[in-house]
């Protein structure tokens, strides 16, 4: 996969792109990333990329020309038609389903805004307008980092075990079940016996039940968007009865 990032602050990406999973993906040549300062594409002699809005209003708007020229350069350089993502508080909220969708693309471009907003004509140049959540950040850089991380970890061979991504919270439609490691007993805090008895069928049932429990208690809204099997319905009813009796 190739990812291009358009930003006024490219140094913000140096740490996240060289450490952990993203850094390893680049080293293994599973990921190619180009971070570009779109100020370099400004035709203004002062390399100005923002201006006052027509009709008045607070703040400055990013001009369409530098973004347009930067996207043209990227397309010509890559010889592809990328999926272009505009980071915008008014965009569609980012989620796991969107990360999975992005991970199937060969080339992504993230446009990180700053200042008050965008010249509306910039929106005609993009394929997606995406928000990290219902809050406003200083710029789109942090949001882009989160989206890149969530997307790249889903690429084949990026994680040590491809099954890890498939069983993560949100990938299954449920929150992930509790997990434990050694020792089995730490100062009286014991690992559930079912996880140490070697019965894989019972372990799988416990994991599913506890995923349902955690989702029911913390994110019940998620249960409305998935189709429950008969076994899941049975286990969920058990969970509800157990939680009522507490």
TrEMBL record:
Catalysed conversion reaction: guanosine(37) in tRNA + S-adenosyl-L-methionine = N(1)-methylguanosine(37) in tRNA + S-adenosyl-L-homocysteine + H(+)
tRNA methyltransferase TRMD/TRM10-type domain location: 1-224
Keyword annotations of the record: Cytoplasm, Methyltransferase, S-adenosyl-L-methionine, Transferase, tRNA processing
GO function term, MF aspect, one: tRNA (guanine(37)-N1)-methyltransferase activity
InterPro entries in alphabetical order: Alpha/beta_knot_MTases (IPR029028), tRNA_m1G_MeTrfase_C_sf (IPR023148), tRNA_m1G_MeTrfase_TrmD (IPR002649), tRNA_m1G_MTases_N (IPR029026), tRNA_MeTrfase_TRMD/TRM10 (IPR016009)
Transmembrane regions listed in the UniProt entry: none
Enzyme Commission number: 2.1.1.228
Top-rank lineage group of the source organism: Bacteria
Enzyme class: transferase
One Gene Ontology cellular component: cytosol
Pfam family, one: tRNA_m1G_MT
GO terms (BP aspect): tRNA N1-guanine methylation
Residues at which S-adenosyl-L-methionine binds: 113, 132-137
Reported function: Specifically methylates guanosine-37 in various tRNAs.
HAMAP family given in the database record: TrmD
NCBIfam families referenced in this protein's UniProt entry, alphabetically: PRK00026.1 (NF000648), trmD (TIGR00088)
The protein's assembly and partners: Homodimer.
Family note: Belongs to the RNA methyltransferase TrmD family.
Protein name from the UniProt record: tRNA (guanine-N(1)-)-methyltransferase
Gene (name only): trmD
């Amino acid at each position: 996969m190739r990812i291009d990032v358009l930003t006024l602050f490219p140094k913000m990406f140096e740490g996240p792109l060289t450490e952990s999973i993203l850094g390893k993906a680049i080293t293994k040549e599973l990921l190619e990333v180009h971070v570009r300062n779109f100020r370099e594409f400004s035709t203004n002699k002062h390399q100005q990329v923002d201006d006052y809005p027509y009709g008045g209003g607070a703040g400055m708007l990013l001009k369409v020309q530098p973004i347009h020229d930067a996207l043209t350069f990227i397309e010509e350089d890559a010889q592809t038609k990328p999926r272009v993502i505009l980071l915008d508080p008014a965009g569609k909220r980012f989620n796991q389903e969107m990360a999975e969708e992005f991970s199937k693309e060969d080339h992504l471009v993230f446009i990180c805004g700053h200042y008050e907003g965008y010249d509306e004509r910039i929106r005609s140049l993009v394929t997606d307008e995406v928000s990290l959540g219902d809050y406003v950040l200083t710029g789109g850089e942090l949001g882009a980092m989160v989206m890149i991380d969530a997307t790249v970890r889903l690429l084949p061979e990026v994680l040590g075990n491809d099954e890890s991504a498939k069983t993560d919270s949100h990938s299954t439609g449920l929150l992930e079940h509790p997990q434990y490691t050694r020792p089995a007993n730490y100062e009286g805090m014991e690992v559930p016996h079912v996880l140490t008895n070697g019965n894989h069928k019972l372990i799988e049932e416990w994991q599913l039940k506890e995923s349902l429990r955690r989702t029911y208690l913390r994110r019940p809204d998620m249960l409305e968007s998935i189709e429950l099997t008969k076994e899941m319905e049975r286990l969920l009813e058990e969970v509800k009865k157990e939680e009522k009796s507490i």
